[in-house]
């Protein structure tokens, strides 16, 4: 008898609408623990829509199909319960939360997921130690922990702050939506190192990116191209390389010519 790891995420014919407008027609996708999937697609093809729908953004409605996470019905769960179950989304455009201190925000989130995993909470002192260490690794000045969440942060600093959350929350599945956009070369290197470390511990990833150098560094198991509300192509790194060479507009048969 063979034992295979059941998928962590199972999407079956998932349809997503914003208001009356269907954005994703039918998405079927399995992601196993530790698997890394790169999601590509032209601007407006629905990559962010998929991440936001999985995270439970209230404006994004699943109108058909199913989504299971760790065996549970993801669509029946509140956003905070999806996060507690180990789902993490880094936003393409991380919002500012004026008045909420970054360290309290991250510690509260971290202790909520720790409680869900049956782990003891971290007190302010211990948290600050691990948060400062993680911030240093990510090249984020320590004083950013004392500022309101993303308030006045540059684009690249916001993305590093998303990485800080990822590093401390240690999710089961992380959706990284254009994490590299606005980041300098050291930031991109920090992404690769953090993803490799978490992946070796079993975290699965869905990475949205247009940047071939990052995609190659991540050594994805699977590369997907989203078009017309569905997964138009599935492949390996050679799919990402072809897209980087010829773009999204050309038909594959022309691209090969
Ligand atoms: P991508 O991340 O692939 O660039 P998005 O998921 O952001 O694409 O957007 C997919 C489509 O959904 C786009 O055509 C976009 O204009 C549309 N869209 C996104 N948000 C809304 C919204 N709040 N209301 C209506 N349409 C939206
Ligand atoms: Mg997007």
Automatic annotation (TrEMBL):
Keywords, A to Z, come to:
ATP-binding, Cell membrane, Membrane, Nucleotide-binding
Organism's domain of life?
Bacteria
A Gene Ontology molecular function term for this protein is:
ATP hydrolysis activity
The ABC transporter domain sits at 9-253
Q: Show the Pfam families listed in the entry.
A: ABC_tran
- InterPro entries documented for this protein: AAA+_ATPase, ABC_transporter-like_ATP-bd, ABC_transporter-like_CS, FeS-cluster_ATPase_SufC, P-loop_NTPase
- Family as reported in the entry's similarity comment: Belongs to the ABC transporter superfamily. Ycf16 family.
Name recorded for this polypeptide: Fe-S cluster assembly ATPase SufC
Q: What organism is this sequence from?
A: Simplicispira hankyongi
């Amino acid at each position: 008898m063979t034992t295979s790891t059941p998928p962590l995420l199972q999407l079956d014919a998932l349809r997503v609408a914003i208001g009356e407008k269907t954005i994703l027609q039918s998405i079927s996708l399995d992601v196993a623990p530790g698997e890394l999937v790169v999601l590509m697609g032209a601007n407006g093809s629905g990559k962010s829509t998929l991440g936001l729908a999985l995270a439970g953004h209230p404006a994004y409605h699943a109108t058909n199909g199913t989504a299971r996470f760790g065996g549970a019905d993801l669509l029946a769960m509140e956003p905070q319960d999806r996060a507690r179950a180990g789902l993490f989304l880094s936003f393409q455009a991380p919002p500012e939360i004026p008045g909420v201190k970054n360290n309290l925000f991250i510690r509260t989130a971290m202790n909520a997921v720790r409680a869900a995993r049956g782990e003891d909470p971290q007190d302010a002192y211990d948290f600050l130690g691990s948060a400062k260490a993680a911030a240093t690794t990510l090249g984020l000045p320590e004083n950013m922990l004392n500022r309101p969440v993303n308030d006045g942060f540059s684009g690249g600093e916001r993305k590093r702050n998303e990485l800080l959350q990822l590093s401390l929350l240690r999710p089961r599945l992380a959706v990284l939506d254009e994490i590299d956009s606005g980041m300098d070369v050291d930031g991109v290197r920090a992404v690769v190192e953090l993803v490799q470390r978490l992946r070796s511990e079993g975290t699965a990833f869905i990475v949205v990116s247009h940047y071939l150098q990052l995609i190659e560094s991540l050594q994805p198991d699977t590369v997907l191209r989203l078009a017309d509300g569905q997964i138009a192509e599935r492949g390996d790194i050679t799919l990402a390389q072809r897209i980087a060479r010829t773009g999204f507009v050309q038909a594959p048969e022309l691209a090969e010519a």
